[in-house]
Amino acid sequence: MIEIADLTKRYGSFTAVDSVSLTVEQGQFTVLLGPSGSGKTTVLRMINRMVEPTSGRVLLNGVDTATMRPESLRRTMGYVIQNTGLFPNMTIRRNVATVPRLLGWDRRRIEERVSEMLDLVGLDPDTYASKYPHQLSGGEAQRVGVARALAADPPVLLMDEPFGAVDPLTRERLQLEMKRLHAKLRKTIVFVTHDIDEAVLLADRIALLREGHLEQYAAPEKLWIEPASEFVKGFFGENLGLRIMARHCLSSVPFKPLDPSVSCAAAPHVEDSVTLKEALAELVGAKATKLIVCHEGAPRGVVDFETLVKALGDGSAPA
Ligand SMILES: Nc1ncnc2c1ncn2[C@@H]1O[C@H](COP(=O)(O)OP(=O)(O)OP(=O)(O)O)[C@@H](O)[C@H]1O
Ligand SMILES: [Mg+2]
Hints:
Elements: E1 2-11, E2 14-24, E3 29-33, H1 40-47, E4 55-60, E5 63-64, H2 70-75, E6 77-81, H3 92-96, H4 98-102, H5 107-120, H6 125-128, H7 138-150, E7 156-160, H8 168-185, E8 188-193, H9 196-202, E9 205-210, E10 213-218, H10 220-225, H11 230-236, H12 240-245, E11 269-271, H13 276-285, E12 290-295, E13 298-304, H14 305-312
Parallel strand pairs: 3-8, 3-9, 6-7, 7-8, 11-12
Antiparallel strand pairs: 1-2, 1-4, 4-5, 9-10, 12-13
The structure holds adenosine-5'-triphosphate and magnesium ion.
Adenosine-5'-triphosphate is lined by residues 11, 16, 34, 36-42, 194.
């Protein structure tokens, strides 16, 4: 758990971060979101003490990080940045092995861990381990960045616009992989972005910053239903409901009952593994008023526009 209390950073008379307080629970995915210059990177870097606060505190599992050695602190926190920061003169194997080597792991354990991490991020170790960073695509390099950050199994992962420099399609794929990784590993993650779609898709909680102030810290559904200010409402805009629909799976919705004689092939249909947003797109695309929901080809129920909208209704639809 990370507790940030009254955290402030001043540069001369300029206040970059102004008395920010928030708690990131164990295993929670928190996104720091806000316009350029709002203080996101500064908050993130105060968590691992790459930037020292002017005042305020950061507690890691109840221990004030100011009392810890910065190097030891950083080994408990994987750090991923845009353009990865991979060492260009080292192979992917050596890059991923960086922290385990610092920790003095033996060679066999390191080798096994490197393979395991590359597999985890979807890169075949036999193909990639001996390559150099310049031989990778942007998306592959970002995956290696994530593998390196996870190599020593740190409980916390700090990520600063990790997918900022890749093309939109790759970016979307990396976001979905990140969501899957978080569900699997349950690391405590603090992730910086200024991309609203990315934030809403990934976050358990979003901290919206504005000129160094924390405007609101809440789940995306809560930001939609109860924005704390006009700024929050305006920042997320009209599309927030639609973006939230991309967070939820159709299988979480109570379907309407189905006439047992209906088959999936008979009418417009969707698999129950799609998101609410995809189901809505399907409905509109098929110019239909309802869709049959199928599970591995077998009909399970019916959804219509009303069901989809009601599923979001009070913002409590399960993720
Ligand atoms: N070392 C520094 N000296 C002086 N001012 C700084 C320093 N680092 C950051 N700032 C200022 O503090 C403010 C917050 O910077 P920060 O990098 O945290 O913003 P950000 O929200 O991460 O922005 P971006 O989305 O552009 O990355 C900015 O106005 C920046 O110019
Ligand atoms: Mg930044």
